[in-house]
Amino acid sequence: MGNITGLVQDDHFSEVPEQPHPTALDGLKLTYFDHPGRGEAVRLALRIAGVAFDDERVTFDEWPKLKPHTPWFTLPMLTLPDGEQLAQTQSLLRWIGTEASPRLYPTDPLTAARCDELVDVINDLEQIAKLELIPAFNETLAKVDGYIARHGAGGHAVGDTLTIADVKVFWAACFLSSGFIEAIPRGALDRYTHVQAVRATVGRLPVVRAYYAGRASDGTMPTYEQPFLDATKL
């Protein structure tokens, strides 16, 4: 792994409480698989925001019955207290980021656009990995690392405060090095210094550390979740 010393700094989320506190987002139910796929970024955003939510985890056997009752036949999905549903990972992240206090989504339009840009590229990167396009995967990762070097600061992906872009980069750095996608070996992202700095920034948040420590201690953590736990020790 590249040397990330000096790239990570303390920020206003360093003392995020380990227990949820009241917010405008309370009363939500997140429905996703018991798996650290793309819905894990939404889980993390809610926890970092201090939201008290129902973390509903469905099995793959239950999915065919549930699928027709989702907005777009996909998960993750949020159910609001009034029964309304929201779906699509990036929309959920932006909404959570906007409603969180402190915000996880920039108020400055250009900075917000840069967050969206990076989040969208991470989605592309996931698809490239699934298609086993290894040269394109490595080239895109190098672009992501350079983008963070130009537009981020202090271990953040965009700007110098915590945003949904950090959460998404953290997720990618962990999940894409988990071995779940066989074409991408474990540790494939280790040499990307700025990506790893963002991973360390998010991983050291008290609420993130507590979440994965709890998952590990109660025996519910799938093998592919190990890189997330490892990130809390960087």
Automatic annotation (TrEMBL):
Question: Which InterPro entries does its entry note?
Answer: Glutathione-S-Trfase_C-like (IPR010987), Glutathione-S-Trfase_C_sf (IPR036282), Glutathione_S-Trfase (IPR040079), Glutathione_S-Trfase_N (IPR004045), GST_C (IPR004046), GST_superfamily (IPR050213), Thioredoxin-like_sf (IPR036249)
Q: Where is the GST C-terminal domain?
A: 82-228
Q: Name one Pfam family in it.
A: GST_C_3
GST N-terminal domain residues are: 26-104
Q: Name one GO biological process term.
A: glutathione metabolic process
- Going by the entry's taxonomy, the superkingdom of the source organism is recorded as Eukaryota
Q: What is the designated name of this protein?
A: Glutathione S-transferase
Source organism of the structure: Diacronema lutheri (Unicellular marine alga)
